[in-house]
Design brief:
Blueprint: E1 5-10, E2 15-22, E3 27-34, H1 36-42, H2 47-69, E4 78-84, H3 88-105, E5 109-113, H4 114-120, H5 122-125, E6 132-137, E7 142-149, E8 152-158, H6 164-174, H7 188-197, H8 222-239, H9 250-278, E9 288-292, H10 299-312, E10 315-317, H11 321-324, H12 329-340
Parallel strand pairs: 1-4, 4-5, 6-9, 9-10
Antiparallel strand pairs: 1-2, 2-3, 6-7, 7-8
Helix pairs in contact: 2-3, 4-12, 6-7, 6-8, 7-9, 8-9, 9-10
The structure holds 5'-O-[(R)-(carboxyoxy)(hydroxy)phosphoryl]adenosine and zinc ion.
Residues 114, 118, 138, 293, 326 line the site of zinc ion.
C-alpha cells in the first residue's frame, strides 16, 4: 500500500469536501465547497438547501482535487466516503457518487464513520499511538471517546442536549453578531471567539457550571444557552436595543459565555482522564488527548484542554484548523488507515449507501 492513492469524499452535513492522499499520508490535494456562509444567513443548516448544494458541487469537488493532484481517477487505488452519521440527504449525494465512481472504474470502496474520521485524522499530523483519548466538539456532535484502534472506539460520554457548535451558532445569531460586517460570513463560533477577544471586562457576566455534581463524562449546553438568553434580554431592555442593534456589552457577554463553555468542556474532559487513569485504559507513557471537530478551532477552548491535560500529564493535539472542521482529508486518511489493516474495504459494491449510526 506504500504507493496507493486514496480519494476521500465527505458530504455528511453542509460541506462538500474531497481530498487525495498517498500511501504515506501525504496530502496531494484538497478541495472544499463550504456552505457555511449560505446557512449562516438562514440561521442553521437547511437540509434541502444542503442537499441541493452538494448535488451542484460534488462533481466539481472531485474533478478539482484530481486536477490539483495531477492525476486521473484511474490512478486512484481506493475511494473512501462518509456513510454515517449525518443528514440523510447530504450523505446520499457523496455515497451515491462514490459508489458510481468505484463501480465504473472498478475501485475498492471504503465506507467511513464521520466521527471516527474526525478523531483519527490527528494521526496524519502527529505521531499518536493507540490507545488515546479524543474529544469531539462540533456543530452536530459532542463526545469523549477512547480510541483503542482504527476500528475500535469506546464511548465515554456525550452531549445530552445541544452540541456546543450549535449553541455557539444560536447565541451568535441571537446576539446579532452577523450584523457586524466582520462576522457576517463566518461561523457563529468563530464570531463569538473574535468578539470575546475584544472584551474589556470578562467578569461582567457569570455563568453556572453545567452538570457540576455529576461524576460522568456527559455534556449539557442548553442551560448555558438559556442563561445567556436571560442576561441578553435584561441588557436589551436596559439599553432599549431593538431591531438590528447590539447591546454595548456584547463582547463581554461573548467572553463570559466562551469561558463557561470552555470550563464545562475541560471539566468533563478531566473526568474522562480520571476514569481512564483509574481503569488503566491509557498507558502512562502515552497520555494523549486529541481535540477535533469545528469547535476545536477555538483557541481559548483548546488552551483550556491543554491546561487540564497538563495537570493530568496528558499532551493535547489537534489537527490544523481547516482539518478540524468537516473536510475530505480526514475521510481519505481514515480510508488509508482502514486499507492498511484491510478493514471494511468493499470490492463487491454491495454496501449500503447510507448506514445507521
Ligand atoms: O465539524 P464542523 O465543521 O461540522 C460539524 O460536523 O458539525 O463544525 C462546525 C461548527 C459550527 O457550529 C461552528 O460554529 C463551530 O464548529 N466553530 C467554532 C469555531 N469555528 C467553528 N466554534 C467555536 N470557536 C471557533 N473558532
Ligand atoms: Zn464534523
Amino acid at each position: 500500500t506504500k504507493k496507493s492513492v486514496i480519494l476521500g469524499i465527505e458530504t455528511s452535513c453542509d460541506d462538500t469536501g474531497c481530498a487525495i492522499i498517498d500511501g504515506s499520508g501525504r496530502l496531494l490535494s484538497d478541495s472544499l465547497y463550504s456552505q457555511t456562509a449560505v446557512h449562516t444567513r438562514y440561521g442553521g443548516v437547511n437540509p434541502l438547501v444542503a442537499h441541493e448544494l452538494h448535488r451542484m458541487n460534488i462533481d466539481k469537488a472531485v474533478t478539482d482535487s484530481l486536477q490539483k493532484a495531477g492525476i486521473t481517477i484511474e490512478d486512484v487505488d481506493a475511494i473512501a466516503v462518509t456513510t454515517r452519521p449525518g443528514l440523510l440527504l447530504s450523505l446520499q449525494i457523496g455515497a451515491k457518487y462514490a459508489r458510481y465512481l468505484s463501480r465504473i472504474h472498478s475501485k475498492p470502496l471504503i465506507p467511513i464513520h464521520h466521527m471516527e474520521a474526525h478523531a483519527l485524522v490527528a494521526r496524519m499530523y502527529h505521531d499518536i499511538q493507540f490507545p488515546f483519548l479524543v474529544l469531539l466538539i462540533s456543530g452536530g456532535h459532542c463526545l469523549l471517546s477512547l480510541v483503542k484502534d482504527v476500528n475500535d472506539f469506546e464511548l465515554l460520554g456525550e452531549g445530552l442536549d445541544n452540541a456546543p457548535g450549535e449553541v455557539f451558532d444560536k447565541v451568535a445569531r441571537r446576539m446579532k453578531l452577523r450584523n457586524i460586517p466582520e462576522y457576517s460570513k463566518i461561523s457563529g463560533g468563530r464570531a463569538v471567539e473574535l468578539a470575546a477577544k475584544k472584551s474589556t471586562n470578562q467578569d461582567l457576566f457569570e455563568f453556572p457550571l453545567p452538570l457540576a455534581r455529576y461524576r460522568d463524562c456527559n455534556f449539557s449546553f442548553s442551560g448555558l444557552k438559556d442563561s445567556l438568553e436571560r442576561k441578553l434580554l435584561k441588557k436589551e431592555e436596559e439599553h432599549n436595543a431593538i431591531g438590528d442593534e447590539l447591546i454595548p456589552e456584547v463582547n463581554d457577554l461573548c467572553a463570559a459565555f466562551q469561558l463557561a463553555v470552555a470550563e464545562h468542556i475541560a471539566h468533563r474532559t478531566e473526568r474522562a482522564m480520571m476514569y481512564c487513569e483509574k481503569n488503566n485504559l491509557i498507558k502512562p507513557d502515552n497520555r494523549v488527548i486529541v481535540v477535533s471537530g469545528g469547535v476545536a478551532c477555538n483557541n481559548f477552548i483548546f488552551k483550556s484542554i491543554e491546561y487540564i491535560g497538563n495537570k493530568m500529564g496528558y499532551t493535547a493535539y489537534r489537527p490544523p484548523p481547516a482539518v478540524c472542521t468537516d473536510n475530505g482529508v480526514m475521510i481519505a486518511w481514515n480510508g488509508l488507515e482502514k486499507l492498511r489493516i484491510q478493514c471494511d474495504v468493499r470490492t463487491d459494491f454491495s454496501f449500503k449507501e447510507v448506514e445507521p449510526e
